[in-house]
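Hi everyone, sorry if this is the wrong subforum. Our group has a chain we'd like a structural model of before ordering constructs, and none of us has done structure prediction before. Sequence below.
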Amino acid sequence: MTRPITAGVDGTEESLAALDWAGREAVRRGLPLRVLHAWRYTESLAIADRSTQHGWVSEGVAQAVRAVAGRHPELAVGVDVVEGEPVHTLARAAAQAEMLVLGSRGYGPVIGFLLGSVGQQVIAGAGRPVVLVRAGDRAAAEAAGRDVVVGQHGDPEDSAATLRFAFETAAARGATVRAVRAWTLPPVFAYSPGSLRLLDDAGGPEQFERQALAEALRPWRERFPEVPVAEHIEMGSAGQVLLSLAGRAQLTVVGRRAHRGAVGSRIGSVAHGVLHHADCPVAVVPHD
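Answer:
Right subforum, don't worry. Here is the predicted structure as tokens:
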């Protein structure tokens, strides 16, 4: 089954930028585009019944669709205007999509469809990649030779899904993957004799991290031999290192595991920090 790229739109500048991004990506990957709007009937608008409000919403979505279809006449575009609760609507859409693309407002919570913790619930619960696009995003950044930056951590299987998404995206764009592994010195008491031996055999902590990154990248280099790869090893927190590179990236890709607590799902600190502060589009990819 061919999965579409789904873009959530609500008429905001951010969501229209997300729609533009999704349209370009769908063309590059040869996939259909699905445009989705979730709405709720507003009883306080006494002058408009449900049918009238639906008509207003549908016309607004149609205008956005006509614009993206005009830029990409070869693109197959489907439209869904759904009356329902946004989180559930987006979660269902994400499950059926190659990726879900949403708008976000800079240096703050994800908005548009999403308000406050709702955005984190969608991202934390989605089983497919979710891409967040800011209002100022333009196609020029994708054509300026910028890299697709991706964070790698742990063993190869820990970031396999994240690396796969980064390599697939770079291959579709003719871009370089800049793979980032950040590391810190753990407390000396955390070292066991076995781990100290591994570090010594590897030539020290930094060389150990370099070898770990190379091992994680090996299967993806083999699968995508046409994609140039730059390896970036840096001492520091993963969030800070990724953000230091995001300003020169056309896309930053991070992985996530959902953490569930008393107040609902939340994403990890690295994904959270990059989402709130990166000035390029950010893809959040769930671990397999």
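For your construct planning: The longest strand covers residues 249-256. The two ends are 19 Å apart (CA to CA).
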